[in-house]
Design brief:
The chain has 6 helices and 9 strands. By secondary structure, the chain is an alpha+beta fold. 21% of the residues are buried. It is 31% helix and 30% strand. It folds into 2 domains: 66 residues, no CATH class; 85 residues, Alpha-Beta Plaits (2-Layer Sandwich), CATH 3.30.70. The strands form 2 sheets. A 5-stranded antiparallel β-sheet has the order 8-5-7-6-9, with helices on both faces. Strands 1-2-4-3 form a 4-stranded antiparallel β-sheet.
Length: 160
C-alpha cells in the first residue's frame, strides 16, 4: 500500500494487485466495510468519520480518503429508555438529532470528545457510518428531534 497526503484531511491510498490478492479482494467487488478496514489499517485509525472515493483498476485500487472530524457520529439504541439513561448520564450537550429508523433509534451527534461517549456506549452502540448516512436517515427515517436532541431530552427527563 502507498499512502500520500493530499492536504490536511485528505489522503490517497494505492492498493496493489498483490495486496488485494493477499486479502482475497477483487477491485470491482470490494465492499464499503472492506475498504474502511483497509483504510483504517493503513492509517492506524480505530474510528472516526471518513468519506471514501473508490477507483478500481483492472487489478489494483485507488482510494481517496476524506477525514471529517466535524461530521456526525451515529449511535443506535433499542429503545427510548436507553437513550434517556445515556443522555442523563453525560454532562455534554453537543448538537444532535434523533431519528427512528428500522425499529431502532439513531442519535446523530456532532462535536464529541471520546470521553463524552462512554454513557452512549454503555446503553447503545456506535454505528460505523459515513457522514452521508445522515442524508439517508433524513430521507428514509423519521426525524424525532432536530438540532438539540440531547439538550431537549435532558431538560424534559432530568430529575429536578
Amino acid at each position: 500500500m502507498e499512502i500520500q497526503a493530499l492536504g490536511g484531511r485528505t489522503f490517497s491510498l494505492y492498493i496493489s494487485e498483490s495486496e488485494l490478492q493477499r486479502r482475497c479482494i477483487e477491485p470491482f467487488n470490494i465492499t464499503a466495510a472492506q475498504a474502511r478496514d483497509m483504510v483504517r489499517s493503513a492509517l492506524g485509525m480505530e474510528s472516526g468519520t471518513m468519506l471514501l472515493d473508490l477507483f478500481p483498476g483492472q487489478r489494483d485500487l485507488l482510494i481517496f480518503v476524506h477525514n471529517d472530524p466535524c461530521g456526525p457520529e451515529f449511535f443506535t439504541f433499542q429503545n427510548i429508555d436507553h437513550i434517556i439513561e445515556s443522555i442523563i448520564s453525560t454532562a455534554a450537550q453537543p448538537a444532535s438529532s434523533l431519528f427512528s429508523y428500522n425499529s431502532q433509534y439513531i442519535l446523530a451527534v456532532w462535536g464529541w470528545r471520546n470521553e463524552d461517549t462512554a454513557s452512549f456506549l454503555e446503553f447503545g452502540q456506535r454505528l460505523d457510518e459515513p457522514p452521508l448516512f445522515l442524508l439517508h436517515l433524513r430521507e428514509h427515517g423519521q426525524l424525532l428531534l432536530d438540532c438539540q436532541a440531547i439538550s431537549t431530552i435532558k431538560k424534559v427527563f432530568s430529575p429536578a
